[in-house]
Amino acid sequence: MKKIIISLKTKFNVATGKIFNVKKEIDIPYKWYGNEYGGFYVSDEKLNKDSVIYSFGIGEDISFDEALINKFGCKVFGFDPTPKSIKWIRSRKNPVEFIFSPFGIDEKSGIVEFLLPKKDNYVSGSVINQINVDEDKKIKVNMKCLSDIVKEMDHKYLDILKIDIEGAEYKVLDSILSAPVEIHQILIEIHERFFPDGKEKTKALLDTLHKYGYKIFGVSKGMEELSFIKI
Fold this sequence. Notes:
By secondary structure, this protein is of the alpha/beta class. It is 27% helix and 30% strand. Helix 2 links the parallel strand 3 (52-56) and strand 4. The longest helix has 14 residues, at 2-15.
């Protein structure tokens, strides 16, 4: 029932012009990994125990990461600078294949101001001043650009790069695509609802990915979890 409601709401928002109408651009096999809240569509035919996956934006949910680890036995590198997320990760027993780093992704490496959520019971903050964060709740966090991350970890190829970074996806995409690493799949949760010009931001994001040879193969019911593959 919940999925039906989400689907109907999405169709209404598209019809009324509230959100960008995102559509699949290539037809390949794919599966959903993770729970309804934290999952993404993945093209898994080429994944195996040697696959390398980066997962930016953990919050308090690693269902996506654990699903891939359980299926393939591969390593998933998780990243999140949010204090609640770091505390949550360190308080639980995680798979040995889940390798966590307490920093986030940005255009440049360094210490930046990070805005915490308006509601104290929420987890996700952002480097972007958007509707869900409080500009008076600022902390300093460590951020790194993808170029520095892959150099430090000595990765030349990523099977999957997933980002769920609360609106900052529009800001960091260019630096991700210019990093010295080949990325086969990019999974992005878009947050156009956070911005008055969200539709324009999403269109620009899609145009940029197209220029780099990526096509959409999976779109969630809510049209926020988008899965791209390089062809």
